[in-house]
């Protein structure tokens, strides 16, 4: 894709969501074009209730000297026409997909896209992983566009304290699609006299990335990819490398990180003890020929099971400095601005008893009198501001129970559940290797805490009750897959109930 000629109109479509500065970017392009001898017009068509609304900004640039030669004013369009767009700028990867579907991208188009995601409501509302696959969007973009420039512009903007619109503007300049010098782009930003320094930083980074250059910080990271592990973690990594297959070591490493952060190195060592039993069985069943699928599945799901969400974990996450930093970054707070964070809590007796010593927690949980007292004084929903000292100290105190977690009621219950699940996985794998992997994947259904966690446990219990009847069937793996998928359809369990009825009736008919 060569630079567009100064002797022809230029059509540009920007597809951005609310809050991403699509209007600012459009205004920059208009000001730039007018300063370079172009007549310019832009319109916008706002979206409706899609991740705050995706808006199409359409810009037409017409060389003023051509209008003067013809002695007429051009008639500029109000909306992009499929097949007649020179430059498409997509602020997010799904928006790049929309531009492809609408026919805006052809072999004469320069497509600039950020490959980060702001998930759609339909993706967020699913109980499982509802994210849409985007590899096909990238592949089709590469095939369809005359020139395709794609990188995470949102992360790039955050890394230099800028907004994504400035990085998009820089990528546009770096693409060489417009017949303007870099200095003209920069002058346009300076002329606005608004957040000039940060916008120029974002512009420079976008320009460099569009031209295939890596910022110095990224070069240094590639040259020195990682430091030495801490003395407490090094023995765990050494054991992993000695005792586990290479195919699974990436997932195991992530599991170790999670569990050391969750509890301590000794708890991560217990993870390796449990996983070792699965790896030994996998080796016995010829797992090497199957790329160690069972070990990899359990490396992932066992770490999730052991890092269950209890009150201690929730409190720990809520008072981490990185969380407050992320909130400030999300709202783009300036230095010195105060950002308050309020947490909504609706505690139940179960969550409080779970973190107490097993004997005491079990006694209080079974006491009607204690439940009545708890519900009267603590059982109401309330908001607690963790950016104020009282609220912060409350969560910090709950976080300090971490050292006593191994003696808690919840730890006792989770240990029993995990050990039973491990035996179920091993028994299923001996029947059929793929069936064992599917039983391992039941952990996907158990997540969160409070009512969400209980619903997940209830769904697994229903599935395992049915599984006990069909586990020896030739199609047991497919049946289990179907039940797991149904359990993730809705919170009410309607789809799962229908799937269980279908499985039961099919077996009865057979």
Automatic annotation (TrEMBL):
The keyword Electron transport does not apply. InterPro entries: DUF6537 (IPR046667), IorB_Oxidoreductase (IPR052198), Pyrv/ketoisovalerate_OxRed_cat (IPR019752), Pyrv_flavodox_OxRed_cen (IPR002869). GO terms for molecular function: oxidoreductase activity, acting on the aldehyde or oxo group of donors. Residues 251-465 form the DUF6537 domain. Residues 18-208 form the Pyruvate/ketoisovalerate oxidoreductase catalytic domain. Keywords: Oxidoreductase, Pyruvate. NCBIfam families: PRK08312.1. This is Indolepyruvate oxidoreductase subunit beta family protein. It comes from Emcibacter nanhaiensis.
């Amino acid at each position: 894709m060569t630079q567009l000629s100064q002797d022809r109109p230029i059509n540009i479509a920007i597809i951005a969501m609310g809050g991403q500065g699509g209007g600012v970017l459009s205004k920059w392009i208009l000001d730039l074009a007018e300063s370079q001898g172009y007549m310019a017009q832009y319109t916008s068509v706002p979206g409706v209730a899609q991740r705050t609304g995706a808006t199409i900004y359409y810009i037409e640039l017409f060389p003023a000297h051509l209008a003067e030669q013809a002695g007429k004013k051009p008639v500029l369009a109000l909306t992009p026409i499929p097949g007649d767009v020179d430059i498409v700028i997509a602020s997010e990867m799904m928006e790049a997909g929309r531009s492809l579907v609408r026919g805006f991208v052809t072999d004469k188009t320069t497509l600039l896209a950020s490959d980060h995601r702001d998930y759609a409501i339909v993706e967020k509302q699913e109980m499982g992983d509802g994210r849409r696959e985007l590899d096909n969007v990238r592949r089709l973009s590469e095939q369809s566009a005359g020139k395709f420039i794609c990188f995470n512009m949102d992360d790039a903007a955050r890394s230099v304290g800028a907004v994504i619109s400035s990085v998009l503007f820089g990528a546009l300049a770096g693409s060489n699609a417009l017949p303007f010098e870099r200095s003209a782009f920069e002058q346009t930003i300076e002329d606005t006299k608004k957040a000039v320094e940060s916008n120029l930083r974002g512009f420079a980074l976008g320009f460099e990335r569009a031209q295939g250059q890596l910022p110095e910080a990224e070069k240094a990271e590639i040259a020195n990819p990682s430091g030495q592990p801490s003395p407490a973690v090094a023995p765990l990594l050494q054991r992993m490398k000695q005792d586990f297959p290479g195919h699974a070591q990436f997932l195991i490493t992530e599991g170790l990180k999670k569990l050391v952060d969750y509890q301590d190195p000794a708890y991560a060592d217990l993870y390796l003890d449990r996983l070792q039993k699965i790896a030994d069985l996998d080796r016995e069943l010829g797992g090497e020929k199957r790329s160690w699928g069972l070990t990899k599945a359990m490396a992932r799901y066992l770490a999730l099971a052991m890092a269950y969400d209890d009150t201690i974990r929730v409190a720990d996450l809520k008072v981490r400095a990185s969380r407050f930093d992320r909130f400030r970054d999300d709202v783009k707070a300036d230095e010195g601005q105060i950002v308050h964070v309020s947490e909504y809590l609706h505690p139940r007796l179960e969550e409080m008893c779970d973190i107490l010593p097993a004997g005491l927690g079990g006694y209080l949980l079974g006491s009607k009198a204690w439940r009545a007292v708890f519900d009267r004084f603590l059982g109401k929903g309330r908001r607690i501001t963790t950016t104020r000292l009282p609220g912060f100290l409350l969560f910090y105190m709950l976080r300090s129970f971490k050292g006593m977690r191994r003696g808690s009621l919840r730890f006792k219950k989770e240990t029993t559940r995990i050990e039973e699940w491990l035996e179920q996985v091993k028994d299923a794998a001996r029947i059929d290797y793929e069936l064992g992997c599917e039983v391992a994947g039941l952990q996907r259904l158990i997540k969160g805490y409070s009512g969400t966690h209980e619903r997940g446990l209830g769904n697994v219990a229903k599935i395992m009750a049915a599984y006990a009847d069909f586990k020896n069937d030739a199609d047991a793996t497919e049946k289990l897959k179907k039940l797991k998928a149904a359990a993730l359809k809705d919170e009410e369990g309607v789809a799962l109930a229908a799937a269980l009825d279908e499985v039961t009736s099919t077996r009865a008919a057979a």
